[in-house]
Amino acid sequence: KVTYSEISPSEFFYRNRDLAGFSNPSRALYTSVRELVENSLDACEQASILPEVECKIEAGPEASKAGDQLQFILTISDNGPGIEAKHLPNAFGRVFYGSKYKLKQSRGMFGMGGTMAILYAQITTNKAVTISSCFDGKIIHTLDMLIDIQENKPVILRHETKESDGKTGTSVRLTLMGDYLRAAQKIQDYFKQTAVVTPYADISLIDPDGKVTKYERATEATPPPPTETKPHPYGIDVEALRRLIKLSQDQSLAKFMTANFHRVGDKTAEKFLSFAGFEKSAKPKSLSNEDVVKFVNALHQFEEFLPPDASCLSPLGEEIMNAGIMKELQPEFVAMSVRPPSAYSGFPFIVEVGIAYGGKQIPQGVRLLRFANRIPLLYDEANDVAFKVINDEIDWKRYRIPQDAPIAIITHVCSTKVPYKTVGKEYLADRPELERELKNATRDILRKLSTFLARKGSMEFQKKK
Amino acid sequence: KVTYSEISPSEFFYRNRDLAGFSNPSRALYTSVRELVENSLDACEQASILPEVECKIEAGPEASKAGDQLQFILTISDNGPGIEAKHLPNAFGRVFYGSKYKLKQSRGMFGMGGTMAILYAQITTNKAVTISSCFDGKIIHTLDMLIDIQENKPVILRHETKESDGKTGTSVRLTLMGDYLRAAQKIQDYFKQTAVVTPYADISLIDPDGKVTKYERATEATPPPPTETKPHPYGIDVEALRRLIKLSQDQSLAKFMTANFHRVGDKTAEKFLSFAGFEKSAKPKSLSNEDVVKFVNALHQFEEFLPPDASCLSPLGEEIMNAGIMKELQPEFVAMSVRPPSAYSGFPFIVEVGIAYGGKQIPQGVRLLRFANRIPLLYDEANDVAFKVINDEIDWKRYRIPQDAPIAIITHVCSTKVPYKTVGKEYLADRPELERELKNATRDILRKLSTFLARKGSMEFQKKK
Ligand SMILES: Nc1ncnc2c1ncn2[C@@H]1O[C@H](COP(=O)(O)OP(=O)(O)OP(=O)(O)O)[C@@H](O)[C@H]1O
Ligand SMILES: Nc1ncnc2c1ncn2[C@@H]1O[C@H](COP(=O)(O)OP(=O)(O)OP(=O)(O)O)[C@@H](O)[C@H]1O
Ligand SMILES: [Mg+2]
Ligand SMILES: [Mg+2]
């Protein structure tokens, strides 16, 4: 007997939480920390606030022990802009709800990370999450909340307010079954690597023994904030065009194009419309369904659109990357390569690669540290495009770097849309344009290291003589 | 200015269609074929019908050419049980809607594959999908349908009925931008490999040149159908327990356990309840929130639950695997290993591994053919647990198999829940229990091949003497 049912987004990810990075207690603890910290950093940067983020992990009562697992109380607090009270329940209690569904670089993009951490905590300990936020500097709202998983909506158990001392910010406190013993190293690496790419943030980690690890602000220089951008013609499909036409008030196709597409001016619009066989003065809403398809295919064929302008992006920049690498890895030598902007499927991206060599901290061998939109990627290295490039597409021998040399390669990709292959943001797809840029950047830094080693070798040779 | 929005499931996968396997035109064509064929095979098997599936790929009009891409009309038809008219629009026009949200082995599990193929077609060509289905053997319903992506619901443009000649079945015809040139080899491999594990199916592929490739039924023997099973205690979390309690009519915890848990009888229930510190006669609905958590933790700690019974599963079996391998690979030697049932997180699974050696079809070197719930997995091999086992965890030298020997290793995993790492069903996670079973099965078949080669080598030696 075949019976049908519909499930909500939260129900789908409850059943398939492996897809979102909640596959076992140690991984779930790691992913929960990651998702909440990234929310705090996104919020601070979006409001141009120098981030202060605290992550406290406290062991739950001994009685809650279950084998290797234990209840942990995870509290992430920030000095960010806070969330308005009316949005607070949905922001954290609904999957596919958020403020990052825009064409703009940010760590978050799926509208579900924070919600999933809360969902996982709830299904393992049955405890409500406590969220506090102050948006106006006057009133702090505190909610105890559960998620109705079958309905994908928040259930508020308690809502209190009190006066704020003028500060804004958000704090999320949840209780989950985790495995800190297994997760500890990964969590510490996550914070250390976050500090490498976010040296303007003050971050502290308090572990279950009460030990405080501070990653202090190394600089007050922040990268210019990313901005929202219009879609590029190469990224437009039929659905996207139909929606733009529906919303459009433009009275001509030429005006429609300059108003809606990234870097398309009057001249380019006219050239394209003549190439595609449309009247530049035709009304957008007069396009038939066949016209819409013809228009979209022509958009992808036309070769004279300017490539996406990456001024909407916010790369780390050499100064910040250098400061972060020096502070956290303390190497003998650093070199960097920042590639010119590129794009895949109309989405602009910038690749920045750094190499750190020597010093007391870096172990022998080549270690790859991957970042995307300032998020450290600590899992599934072998599946990542950066790993593929470094292992399969670089001819290491030509750089004459000793096999046991202590090396760290740091790759950062920023984009309006990072091509993650999984909802858990574990690794990047091998888009050809991305692969090419990573390859060129890696060759660049290996040449620089090679030169340094040759010079160093000959200097030491001179000394001995 | 921070603005919030909520998006529907179809909107989420429209924006993030890479996650579902629709990353480029050739991959999208492949994934569309895969999702629709798997729906047909699932439906036939569920109704105990010997499957007849036709996949026709016709080139669209020359005028629709756009670079390497072209419009293709993809039509998949089957002799399955059909879909009732009232369910037809939602089955294909809504993401997170389906009949496979049960604890039962089937190819489908996410409730979105067919819908995504239709969505992708629509956003590339703006053409409605045409679906025909006959459920009662009397009336064929034909719908032309679009998906309202922002609302995640079907929009019916046309609905006609006509008399059926007594047959049931379903046909889906959609028009999408694809790249058959690039996808052809993968699509052909998909059908060839599907024939290996489904030798009781009649499958035909008609390519854009009109060429027909038939994979004819090799046997009428079908594996016993899988059955739905109850959840195993090791797979229960707090949310699952709360729901079972809410639905429960049971008057005692002991009755509640035997009624709801897999392979838990009165004795085991009593033992567990005393271990966990509960009254066996207590009413399930009397459990407090703390009790629920205590109950779940104890379920995972109790060591005397019988392991999941795999009688609900439907492995290929040696006969079918042998028939499929012989027919499609025509090797000189075949060996097989069917592992005893195992489980991960309370989900039962069975690993079956075959090895094929020699003959004219198998090229030199080791080729891995992976299957899960009878689906051929043709992408992301390097990320799969089977690849990891074969490359990193097997000591090939001890089997003395020549490096250039022509070998194919065929792995099949069946489970009530296949641990895919992606929505696109590309590869399996390296769950420790799964890894262990694949390793043992692989060693088993390599021993058998090794013995065969030794015997063959000594016989040839005898001949020469
Ligand atoms: N600490 C915070 N400060 C301010 N706003 C926050 C904070 N945490 C979450 N939010 C808001 O809640 C929304 C939902 O967060 P959530 O993590 O679920 O999704 P996301 O960050 O948008 O995307 P992703 O799933 O990729 O993380 C965010 O978009 C943001 O607007
Ligand atoms: N050819 C068919 N014959 C009968 N029923 C079908 C057929 N195709 C689809 N269905 C029904 O439509 C439902 C939705 O199909 P869809 O492919 O979207 O999801 P699914 O198969 O349940 O899961 P998955 O996303 O993993 O494929 C199926 O569960 C099934 O009930
Ligand atoms: Mg987030
Ligand atoms: Mg399906």
Describe the structure.
2 copies of one chain form a homodimer. The first copy, chain A, contains 12 helices and 16 strands. The first copy, chain A, has 465 residues and is α+β, with helices and mostly antiparallel strands. In chain A, helix 7 crosses helix 8 and helix 11 crosses helix 12. Chain A is globular. An 8-stranded mixed beta sheet of chain A has the order 7-6-5-8-3-2-9-10. In chain A, strands 11, 12, 13, 14, 15 and 16 form a 6-stranded mixed beta sheet that branches. Helix content of chain A is 35%, strand content 23%. The longest helix of chain A is centred in the last third of the chain and has 33 residues. The interface between A and B is large, with 61 and 60 residues. The complex binds adenosine-5'-triphosphate (2 copies) and magnesium ion (MG) (2 copies). The site of one adenosine-5'-triphosphate has 20 residues of chain A, from helix 2 and helix 4.
Observed structural traits:
homodimer, 465 residues, alpha+beta, eight-stranded mixed sheet, six-stranded mixed sheet, 12 helices, globular, binds adenosine-5'-triphosphate, binds magnesium ion
Biggest sheet features of chain A = 8 strands, mixed
Q: Count of DSSP E strands of chain A?
A: 16
Mean pLDDT of chain A: 95
Strand line-up across the major sheet of chain A: 7-6-5-8-3-2-9-10
What's the SSE pattern of chain A?
A: EHHEEHEHEEEEHEEHHHHHEEEEEHEH
What share of the residues of chain A lie within helices? 25-40%
The biggest chain-chain interface is: A-B, 61 and 60 residues
Structural class of chain A: alpha+beta
Beta-strand level of the residues of chain A, as a percent range? 15-25%
List each distinct ligand once. adenosine-5'-triphosphate, magnesium ion
Shape of chain A: globular
Instruction: Please tally the helical runs of chain A, counting DSSP H or I stretches of 4 or more residues.
Output: 12
Radius of gyration based on Cα positions of chain A: 25 Å
Unreliable spans of chain A are none
Assembly type: homodimer
Q: For the terminal residues of chain A, how far apart are their CA atoms? A: 88 Å
